[in-house]
Amino acid sequence: MVFSTGILLLFLVSMLVSSIGFKHYIWFFSIGYGFAIAGEGLLLLLTGKGITPGTLLCCLLLIAYGLRLGGYLTFREWKVGSYKTNMKGEIKDSKTVPFGVKIAIWLACAMLYVLQAAPVYYRMASGAADNAFVFIGAAVMAFGLWMETEADLQKNRAKKINSRRFVDTGLYRFVRCPNYLGEMLFWTGAVISGIGAVTGWQWALVALGYALIAYVMFSGARRLEIRQNKNYGADPEYQQYVKTVPILLPFVPLYSVEKYKWLVA
Q1: pTM
Q2: Which pLDDT score, from 0 to 100, does residue 3 have?
Q3: Residues sharing a CB contact under 8 Å with residue 90, sequence separation 6 or more, in sequence order
Q4: How many whole angstroms separate alpha carbon 108 and alpha carbon 152?
Q5: Cβ contacts of 167 within 8 Å, gap of 6 or more
Q6: Using CA atoms, how far apart are residues 130 and 117, in angstroms rounded to an integer?
Q7: Contact 43, 9 (CB under 8 A)
Q8: pLDDT at 89 over 90
Q9: What is the rounded CA–CA span in Å between residue 73 and residue 180?
């Protein structure tokens, strides 16, 4: 079935965890996002029928991904003063966001998080045996998780050396947003893990979730590009960097998305 009790439970968990956004609306799709994914992974692990080695691995990766992201964003929110300074003017004061809008964001985010985890859920719900795709998908998920984590660590180390310079070392030599690329790879792996178990209209929901998270990543890359152009635009080294290093996808000559105003999230 496309919709089921299991999907409803995932939605309720996502709503419960991401409700932290009513404190600060940005947390609906930051801290709430990370911990909602971890909550979904834990729910699948505790309630899933016929857990196999492949689905166990996928669930553990969902939990690890969510805890890492939620923990990192929580630390950044409360401890990193430079982040708050950089984001001034980009994020609305939560008090100015109407309650009805917050409700809409909350529900939309919770549903998106369900769609992202849907490939793993549908594989478990179908009772399908493990195949090569579930392990290939898990490997891609693990690689994406590593890339996202390493990109954040590399950026933190570089900023400690020179907080006023853009980062162009390590993974940042290949793409300007390797943390976003890592996230896209993680969810690409989740989709791959469902091949052979996801069927029919289930694929429509899986594809929708993947398309939406890709949109969010490109939107995030656009926001970052605008911010960096403002901060480093007068630096000749930065200008050379952005002309030669793709913004998000390696080996794809897409160097800027600033002009794509429809990338708003």
Answers
A1: 0.92
A2: 62
A3: 223, 227
A4: 27
A5: 154, 155, 158, 159
A6: 17
A7: yes
A8: no
A9: 14
